[in-house]
Amino acid sequence: xxxxxxxxxxxxxxRLFSHQVEQLSAxxxxxxxxxxxxxxxxxxxxxxxxxxxxxxxxxxxxxxxxVALEVVRVAPQRVTxxxxxxxxxxxxxxxxxxxxxxxxxxxxDGDFDRITPERLAPILIHRQEDRRLRQLVLDMAAAIGPExxxxxxxxxxHRPDNSGVLGQIECPTLVLCGAEDAVCPVVLHEEIAARxxxxxxxxVPAAGHLSTIDAPEAVTAALxxxxxxxxHTTDTKQD
Length: 239
What we know:
It contains 10 helices and 6 strands, in the order E-H-E-H-E-H-E-H-H-H-H-E-H-E-H-H. By secondary structure, the chain is of the alpha/beta class. It has a 6-stranded parallel beta sheet with strand order 2-1-3-4-5-6, with helices on both faces. It starts with a strand and ends in a 12-residue tail after the last helix.
């Protein structure tokens, strides 16, 4: 059976992929990785590879997608399929770093509990009227906690430019984005898909940044189709 490893975004845990794990378990051995222990993208990728099977399909959302690109860069021969969801291949902008610096200071000042409800939840999901969905976002952030958030925030603030990695990817690749994603907009994913040979681009209607919970059925259907593509790996060049 195919091994599928899913990597969550900042302040998200395995619940980000609840629908996908449940619905895809008949097709693959689905696991959700942990991106809370390292404070660099490179360190996160190393921890993922240390815990992963020898060969596996890999999907990542947001921070998870950034880490997935690093995994493919350093160990392309181990990844049979790649799914990049609501993510970013570029280095952080000055505006993003400034925002994350504010979040860091808020956390150090003891105001971590304000960050998600006041600053993040309004831009992470499209279905703002869904109280259950909003509460899920808050619960995941609380479970990750301030110390892990500081590590994730540092990693994101110093993330590499992955533009050069895209042209090296040769395994079956899905690039997916919520149509209403205000964090990593559609245009970024159009560029990612254009740079990866044979990549499939999927834009999910009425979904925001956390598309896996905003439009779970549509995302799961896209992942099911992606997993059905014939697997292959190549010894792509490394930077």
